[in-house]
Amino acid sequence: MHHRFPPKLLLSPAIALLSCSKPPQSLLIPFPFYLRSRIPNPNSLLTPPTNSTSSIFRSFLHFPCRNFSSLSGTTMPRPKRSRFPSLILDDHEEVDFVEVVRLIREDSSRLEAELNQKNLMVSPSFVLEVLFALNKEGIPALRFFNWAMNCCPGFVPSAKIYNQLVNNLGRVDDYETMFGLLTKLSTRGFCLTEKAFAFLTLTRPDNLTSLVEKIVGILNGVGSCRGSGIFSLIRHLCSMNAFDLAISVMEKTSKSTRYYNALIAAKCKNGDFQGAREVFDEMSQSNCDPDMNSFNYILGCLLKYNRVNEACGLLETMERLGFTPDEITYELLVFHACKASRIDSATQFLDKMLLEGLRPRLKTHAAFIKGYFLLGREADAFKYVLDTSLRDKFSVNVNYSMLSSLFCKSKRVSEAGRILYEMMEKGYRPNQRVYFRVVKMLHKENKGDMASQLQNMFMKF
Length: 461
Fold this sequence. Notes:
Protein name: Pentatricopeptide repeat-containing protein
Pfam family, one: PPR
Family: Belongs to the PPR family. P subfamily.
Low-confidence stretches: 1-50, 61-86
Structural class: mainly alpha
Number of strands: 0
InterPro entries: PPR_rpt, TPR-like_helical_dom_sf
Largest sheet: none
Keywords: Repeat, Transit peptide
């Protein structure tokens, strides 16, 4: 028998809105710098089209915003890693992990022989955990890695493992081996990430400049890894607020929109809008035209700090310069509209997005679901999940699981269970973490029959 989720069971008193002050007036001149290569017909600059994204945005320009920080995720907040292992290892693997780290720490001349005697089940996740632990303690990992490569036929290192190994070589100052490894990775098509340069965080400030110069020299000679390496190095330096060094790397290698965007993103993350604006102007003067990522970083920063007048000005300028809002642009606008309790405006953004053939991202759906829920419009949140499931099959599992999670967090476990029941009845597998949490709470509330029913359905996946 098909059990529809009864909206009447969702009705509850509306959640009181938090009052906030009126958004501040614009503090800067109209944004941004006009680029010669993107200047359109002057007649098109007179007035923005009435159906433009910016005109929709202006419709709720002065509405108060409330606390909506919980919208940053798409499902459940990820648990913080408080200990090693950080990945899920079974009891046997965890015992092996502790023993292997101990052996490597002792640095015995018989390390390889002792590892062979352990009859270990070496998987990529196991090796990655060992590398995490060794990097945390600054212990050389090369012997262990070589042993795994030579003595474990089924072991195939992943890009994550190689990046952690590069990080380890940096922590133990073995740059000669690092050069050889990066050259090898280039021939195999691997890319570097910021994780490879995490060792820079531990470097003394007075040694950082010379070390970065050494790394740039290494990257310049290793082949195809250079591109991803330089980009990741710049991003990591920005995350350390070492912006001068990041710019120095660009000057020694090349200046590109992608590199400048890394600086803009870091400035915006720090809430330094003026600094982001200065980088934006500098990239224009360096013949690096901004792209939609450049605008989206700054737009997100303006909206985050409720500088909506400037955000609207930025949108208008984007449109006048011929830039078309993308999925991330609309996601930012939807998020802010829901934050301002203007889901009607958020819906306009969504409609415009769909008309332009853009698929909403998971965080866009999250904004609507949480927005409705926090306004006490749970039935509308459920309707949104249903409607979305008809046009976007890729988001169904996440959206249903999110709504169930919201009910669970609100101590309304019966509704959470009904959501999971309906999605599994339709053939969708719920988020495992949400499922276990709901079943656990059902048992605590002496609703074992419902929990058993969900468990029987979950076993089919």
